[in-house]
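Attaching the record inline, Q. Sequence:
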Amino acid sequence: MLTMWWDNPADGPTNMAADECLAAEAEQRGCLLLRVYGWTETTVSLGAFQKIEDARQIPEIDGVPLVRRPSGGGAILHGSDLTYAAAVPKSHPWGASPQTLYDALHGGMVAVLSRHGIQAWPYADSAPAGTVPPGHDDQPFFCFDRRAAGDLLMAGPGSGPASKIMGSAQRRLAGAVLQHGSLLLRGNTLVGGAARHVAVSDLLAEVRLPEAQGLDAEGLDAEGLDAEGLAREWGRRIAATLGATVGEEDSPFCRGREQEVAALASRFRELRWTLRR
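Structure, as predicted:
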């Protein structure tokens, strides 16, 4: 079974702590878990190995809250994207290698987007996806300026080059694999310059995605893209690939785990964690 949760928006440290709890839960349950969530404010999540000095050299994110992820990869400006965390035990067929889980989840999104007339494809490259060894992160600062095997691309505006619309990164823990990912639904209007990237809504003037399923007006993003409806269909596609069913939890993942999440979040709030590189 694939179990999914829909969490209320939270700040960066709370979201990172909840994702670590998700990894522990996946190891205990022995199956793939998926958490889809939002952000209470525009936030930049740094990859685990990125240098804080590199962030300070980007004037467009000056004053934007920063949180350092436990996973690798490049920085992501959150707030207008579909953010997810997936966790799977290492004993699971998809936990055996980084690329297997990466390709399975991204392949599911390709299929879902295709059903709605949105053509995306995986980037082909020999470099492992979402993994950069410590001390060797000489790639562009932002995730959506990078390319790794399995990243999802769409045709660029006009005759321009293809644009990256989805990327993920991993952390391999003792008994589980934690994968963070982001589908860039629309550009964030609160930033410009290097911090703003071409999004799905920029590439398609009119996009019709699955209609909201029981959501009120706040459940739809500002461009009319139904993030939750898209994610629900994505979950069903992933489960079908596994030959499993989807179990959608009625309550957020953090409910009933507040104390555990708060305790873990304290580490992500510490400057020594954020400034560790």
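The CA atoms of residues 17 and 263 lie 8 Å apart. DSSP finds seven helices and eleven strands in the chain.

More tomorrow.
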